[in-house]
Specification:
This protein has about 475 residues and is mainly β. The protein has two domains: about 350 residues, YVTN repeat-like/Quinoprotein amine dehydrogenase (Methylamine Dehydrogenase, Chain H, 7 Propeller); about 100 residues, Immunoglobulin-like, CATH 2.60.40.4070. Helix content is about 0%, strand content about 50%. It is built from no helices and 40 strands.
């Protein structure tokens, strides 16, 4: 999570904020698209028989009974861009979206909130309003919580806001006694929110804030305010675990500015009075709980603890037991667990296991080849950086996507711009069919050296079908 300077008009007193032009969409002709919207799964929530997935390319819904994905776009009432925050319970779904923009004051890309969308009927209709707050720039909603029928949203540039009427209006709600000022006060710059056991928790750029009266009064908990404190004051995620008749609060606590701060996961068994830290130096992004089991989605992967954090296990790289499809990269962004089934939201897709990680099913978004005017093969990501993207074991990988019309042996070779052979990716390997397939190349030649920057061509030879060509641009 990068911090960039931002420009705000400081507001001196709490005030009701209009939600702008509120639009309502009923899905009729503009039906949700089939399939998963994107592979970066930033949020996961469940309501009834549906699993809701926030992705870098919009919102998706998985019908757990049929296994079918559908995805929602602005045509169905959502904001433009990626899903920045997601909350679901019963038939009610709340989605915050965001995108990048530029301003005259700062030509670099800045995040911009594109609004909040509500559905009260499991996605059949949506009500959308523009991003609330003093400015949309640097004001995207990072998290959503609902406490005592009040909706709470948190953002960096827009601060902490609450809505008593399910998004029809918003009220500034600083988690302390100071005038609302996200520009001047770190504790008004929100990152995370959670509600459970009658308590409301808000994570900011200056620690954890707790309220037991729905925001009327607050207690601020920081790295220096307690003998046994959180590890760092950037609280980018919060989770409430309910197990054994008690509420346990977890925080992804990153370094802010203090010299003694460190990245870790912080846990409190006593309502925030004392904290214990785990996974030191790990940057965590999200939590999931299945009774006493704790899951942490982090930069280096998905961690699990069966003893409330005293010991941890890091899941190895995930591979689909059906077809060998791999999740590339280590970053885990989100997770959801219930009754022994775990869903992991990765940077490279969605993974599911019901046997504690012994076997996985992988779900990925891709454009089918050879249909709807698409070529028989393409490479992605493209351009591709072997040193930065899809990292596993020190190598990065690009996929060569294609389809087979029948079972066949397949050969894939990579050539440089002079059409000299650089690497043989696979040679006469058997592939089932008809099927969508993908082969992985690590950007190295047949001698194991990383190739130079530039354009490369690859040939896809399918036995009994033909030879097809694609192109990939290497940039390191």
């Amino acid at each position: 999570m990068k911090m960039r300077r931002f420009w705000l008009i400081a507001l001196l007193a709490p005030a009701a904020l209009g939600a702008g032009v509120i639009t309502t969409h009923r899905i009729s002709g503009a039906l949700p698209k089939s399939g998963l919207a994107g592979n970066g799964i930033t949020d996961i929530a469940r309501s009834g028989g549906h699993l809701w997935l926030g992705t870098g390319n919009g919102l998706s819904r998985l019908d757990l009974a049929t296994g079918q994905f559908v995805s929602y776009t602005p045509a169905q009432g959502l904001g433009h861009g990626s899903v920045a925050a997601l909350w679901a319970h019963g038939d009610t779904i709340i989605v915050a979206t965001a995108t990048d923009t530029v301003t005259a004051a700062d030509p670099a890309a800045l995040p911009k909130g594109t609004g909040i969308s509500f559905s009260f009927d499991s996605g059949e209709t949506w009500r959308h309003s523009p991003q609330p707050g003093p400015t949309p720039i640097q004001n995207l909603t990072y998290d959503i919580a609902v406490n005592a029928s009040t909706v709470w949203i948190v953002s960096y540039g827009g601060g902490v806001l609450k809505s008593p009427d399910w998004g029809l209006s918003w009220v500034e709600a600083a988690p302390d006694t100071f005038n609302f000022d996200p520009y001047g006060k770190y504790n008004h710059r929100g990152f995370s929110a959670a509600a459970a056991g009658g308590a409301l928790w808000i994570g900011t750029a200056e620690g954890v804030n707790k309220s037991t009266d729905n925001g009327a009064t607050w207690r601020n908990l920081t790295h220096v305010s307690q003998p046994e404190p959180i590890s760092g004051n950037f609280v980018v995620a919060l989770g409430c675990q309910q197990t054994g008749g008690r509420d346990i609060i977890w925080g992804a606590t990153w370094v802010a500015e203090g010299e003694t701060e460190y990245n870790a996961v912080s846990r409190s068994l006593d309502g925030g009075l004392t904290w214990k830290t785990f996974l030191r130096d790990e940057k965590a992004h999200n939590f999931a709980f299945d009774d006493s089991v704790v899951y942490v989605a982090a930069d280096n992967g998905l961690f699990v603890s069966h003893d409330l954090g005293e010991s941890w296990y890091l899941y190895p790289p995930m591979r689909d037991a059906r077809d060998g499809e791999r999740v590339l990269g280590t970053e885990a962004y989100s997770a959801y667990a219930q009754d022994g089934t775990l869903w992991a939201g990765m940077a490279d897709g969605l993974a599911r296991t019901s046997d504690n990680g012994f076997t996985w099913e992988i779900y990925r978004a891709f454009v089918p080849t050879g249909r709807g005017g698409e070529k028989r093969t393409y490479a992605y990501p493209n351009p591709f950086s072997p040193m930065r993207q899809n990292q596993i074991g020190g190598d990065g990988y690009v996929r060569f996507q294609y389809n087979t019309r029948a079972a066949a042996r397949v050969t894939v070779k990579v050539f440089d711009f002079a059409m000299e052979l650089v690497a043989t990716v696979i040679d006469g390997e058997y592939r089932t069919g008809p099927a969508e397939c993908a082969e992985l190349w690590n950007g190295r030649n047949d001698y194991g050296d990383l190739v130079a920057n530039g354009a490369y061509f690859y040939s896809l030879e399918i036995e009994g079908d033909g030879t097809y060509w694609g192109k990939v641009l290497i940039i390191n």
